[in-house]
Amino acid sequence: MVKIPQYPLKQRLRYAIDNYMSRGSSSIFMALLLTFLIGFIIMVFVRLIANSFFPDDTLDSWLEIPWRVYVAVMEGSAAETDGDSNWLAKLSSILGVLVGLILFSSMVAFITSVFEAKLDDLRRGRSIVLENNHTLILGFGDRILEIIRELIEANDSEPDAAIVILAEDDKENMDNYIRDNILDFKTTRVITRSGVVTNINNLKKVMAENAKSIIIINSAASWQPEQEKTLADALVLKSIMSIIAVCEGKEHPPIVCEIHSNRDRNLAQNISNGTVKALNEVSVLSRMIAQLALSRNGLSVVYGDMVGFDGNEFYFYKPNEGWSSNLTFEESINRFHSSTPMGIHTFEGKIILNPPKDKPINSDDELIIFAEDDSTIKYFSEAVFTPTINSIPEVQLDIHTQRVALLNWTPKTKIIVEKLCSYLQKNSEINVFASSLSNDMETTKKSLADRYPNIKITIKDIDFNELKDLENIDPQSFDSILILSPGGATIEEMDAYVISLLIRIRQILLAKVGTESKNYDWPKLITEVMDSENIDIILNSGVEDFMVSNQFVSQIMAQVSEEPLALDVYDDLFHADGSEIYIKPASNYFDFLDSGSITIKYGECMQAAQLRNEIVLGLQLHKEQKHKEKMFGIKLIPDKNTFFTISSKDGFVVLAQDEG
Asked: Taking the model in full, what pTM does it have?
């Protein structure tokens, strides 16, 4: 039998007091209150004993003694009540004053410390969030500002909206960073809390189960080492599992996340019965940058408008009264004034962009509508525009080889080169220049050379800081030059590197212009930018198209958080086998032989595109192509009855199967 040790009473009493006090501030308060009462009772007994030996003539009765003690202890002054009492009464009052000062000071100090602890707790972002139907963001990084800006625009029509951010960063630092960079929050409140994003208790504090949607920001950037990206992806998966656990078997809010690995991305999207949309930055941006290299200038403006809430967006729409009977997709185009149907979301859940003209719209189908706002979408049971055009000119495709240069090897380069190979004509060239060569580059080159034997691919190392080396690549001989953003400690450093490289390329081209004839063709310069604040600098350096990577991905994540099906549309847009967005010459649709320009209603432009099995989303006016404030000449989804004067130099923004 184990002998139970006997501890001294003093030690056991101290242990019991320690356990009681460790329960929290309420226990400490009760202990102080008890001490105060005990001290008060003791002082009453002392005064009673003193009065029994030396009666106080100023007392009307013995029952007045507790009041005298209370005044001495609480007010700290006995001059008014015991000023005419005997010396023993005065001595007991002085003792009561001292006891009161000690106990009352302890109480004040305790309340002050509790108040400071509460303020410190609020500063550290540990308190609960009592919000409902809010957007929850897990993580804090370079994308956070762009995501918040987009959500503020999305919430503009709501009287009171909330964005809650949970991250491991310091709450005060997060608040200051957001306030310093965003001046107008409109109707949106931004609430930050500090804590581990995978912790279930922290997710309960920010009411994850009551959120409208949840955005999970990946802590690793695409240019960081594979080991860091793998770990960051694992944390995203754990965050998803924690959200599922918080919801306790109920359907969780739609989750939007960024995952680098294809394997983990597929796992994330099938991890639960709820909606989880996983985005891969490298895949989306690479395909889009490849399109920019081969398309007319201005395509990035179209995509930027499409993904931003302050521009036009696509919506999944079905009228309350239902579709007209026997309605085909071609007929649906003229049932809206300005909003433009892009495709069909079938009742089976399938996304079909640019479907066949005679594709019937079933009663349970939704149209994918490109519109300024959902409030502007209005379906009419009868056609609002009757086109008159019934023929288009025969187009002679200008098939020619191209030379494309890519500066910098990044995680996107491999996919960009692969995408370019699928677009370019036979005997075209792709030249990649990197600061150093690696086995991965050689493997990529060999793999693509086997698949695309008619495309010449070269990969060379170069010192980008040496003007002589840049001159040797003969930049003026290329049709397009893509300057990709390398990795860096901050996005500002990355943009500074790109801008400095752009300036050197521009210097070489300007020098070449002075020695060539007037017919000298400047190659198309396309630059990847991380910070949207640097666009003006880029444009003044001769760039004709640009891609704000950080902003673009952030905007897609914000848009998908509001409409999860939007990611399925983007997947289809950037897929090689589906319809894509192009800017095609107006001469593909109208004959300009007899006159330099024609004035025509926009609805006729839409009909001309339909005759080519394409969907027109807007126009590009050549005379405004250099003006940023006019969206570089891009006019998206105007009213069908609006007149435009167009020439062969203008372009049509279309959704089409190919560039032809």
From this structure: 0.78
